[in-house]
Design brief:
It is a single chain. By secondary structure, the chain is mainly alpha-helical. Among the domains are: about 1-145, no CATH class; about 285-373. The protein has helices at about 40-50, 55-60, 65-75, 85-100, 105-115, 140-160, 165-175, 180-190, 195-205, 215-225, 225-235, 245-250, 255, 260-270, 275-285, 290-295, 305-310, 315-325, 330-345, 350-360, 365-370, and strands at about 1-5, 10, 20, 35-40, 120-125, 130-135, 160, 165. The strands form 3 sheets. Strands 1-2-3 form a 3-stranded antiparallel β-sheet. The radius of gyration is 28 Å and the shape is flat.
């Protein structure tokens, strides 16, 4: 996953740190090596061309581990090139390190990079606002690499020669380091066999009270175990406590579970007020014909708008028929939500239904509102 800042290509690591790779321009220039420096892309390009940065990077890629240590020491301490050039090269070394295993030499190199404080800043302008961002997150990249090594050690501890040390893993997951645990769970579960995952699911069902909900949801998504989803949702009081990874897992229930398994889980989400809009949208698309509950929710004060949006996204002509029938109801909220669904629908017939209703309706205020939709 990545994004771009001022011509700089960025990649998000599994640890959540950001590694920034040079595209065509870099962010920097040098005036003094002792203070924070801010520079434009044009200045950076001129500086890097003048110092043949691409050739220097190619040479660094050919260095041995021992020579990389010497090079990093020199770049971080000897002022024989502009600071921007030296930081760009140090950043290249940090990227090379991120691809390496945890060896004594790589650990020594990581120590050098961790001790370096980046000084070159990129001036980013957005809607009239100016902010300075680190051009080359050298120490952050090294820190991310150390975390990756740590996670690999943990994985080796809990998965020895292909054998899952299940109780050790459950004891670890009962600890307090939620962020580290989540990163390990997401990494580890992709390495487990189906029987191992099934056994782990059964064990979690027995020990669920001591394991964070985010971990249970991650394993539920990997194992397609509806029971794990249900106990997770039952423990959630609202959506505000959900981690981003958990939101993603809940948003893919209809893809992970069968229709028969997914329906009660999605209904439980609505009842527990856990991402109800997400649940309603999935429930509406489990089958070709939207679930009856979605039509019932149209007249619900809290969830009616979500139901209308979900029905509007359906291409089933029977949905239009149901919505048109609702326009004859005495429940004004049901009528308005049905009109909302029709107005949002991409089916051509929906506009005709609204037009016919407007011509026959004596509700002046509603007709005025419809004319503005």
């Amino acid at each position: 996953m990545g994004f771009s800042i001022g011509g700089i290509k960025t990649v998000v690591l599994r640890t959540g740190y950001i590694k920034t790779g040079l595209a065509v321009l870099s962010l920097v220039a040098a005036i003094s090596s002792q203070a924070e420096q801010v520079i434009s892309p044009v200045q950076a390009k001129q500086l890097f061309v003048a110092h043949d940065i691409n050739l220097q990077i190619d040479n660094i890629k050919q260095l041995s581990s021992a020579d990389l240590i010497l090079k990093a020491n020199r770049l971080s301490s000897i002022d024989d090139q502009p600071l921007a050039v030296r930081e760009r090269l140090l950043y290249e070394i940090s990227q090379i390190l991120s691809q390496g295993d945890e060896t004594p030499q790589n650990k020594q190199l990581a120590g050098i990079l961790l001790g370096y404080q980046s000084q070159i800043k990129w001036l980013q302008q957005d809607a009239g606002y100016h902010q300075h961002i680190i051009a080359f997150p050298i120490s952050a990249t090294a820190r991310a690499t150390e975390m990756d090594w740590h996670l690999d050690r943990l994985q080796d501890q809990f998965l020895r020669s292909g054998n899952l040390q299940q109780q050790e893993l459950l004891n670890y997951l009962a600890g307090d380091n939620i962020i580290e645990q989540q990163m390990l769970v997401e990494q580890l579960i992709t390495q487990l066999s189906t029987p191992q995952l099934n056994t782990l699911s059964a064990a979690i069902l027995d020990q669920r009270q001591s394991i964070a909900t985010a971990h249970i949801l991650a394993i539920a998504a990997q194992t397609a175990d509806a029971r794990l989803y249900q106990i997770s949702i039952d423990r959630l009081e609202n959506s505000s406590s959900l981690r981003p990874e958990s939101i993603q897992n809940l948003a893919k229930i209809s893809e992970t579970l069968s229709t028969q398994q997914a329906r009660p889980v999605l209904i439980q989400m609505i009842e527990r007020d856990v991402l109800p809009g997400v649940a309603i949208s999935q429930l509406a698309h489990l089958d070709e014909q939207p679930d009856q509950l979605i039509f019932e929710l149209l007249s619900d004060v809290k969830y009616g708008a979500d139901a209308a949006l979900a029905l509007a996204q359906s291409n089933n002509t029977e949905v239009l028929t149901r919505l048109e029938q609702n326009l004859q109801a005495k429940n004004k909220l049901l009528v308005r939500r049905s009109l909302l669904a029709l107005s949002l629908s991409q089916q051509p017939e929906a506009k005709l239904i609204i037009s016919n209703y407007s011509q026959a309706s004596s509700d002046v205020l509603l007709n005025k509102e419809l004319s503005q939709w």
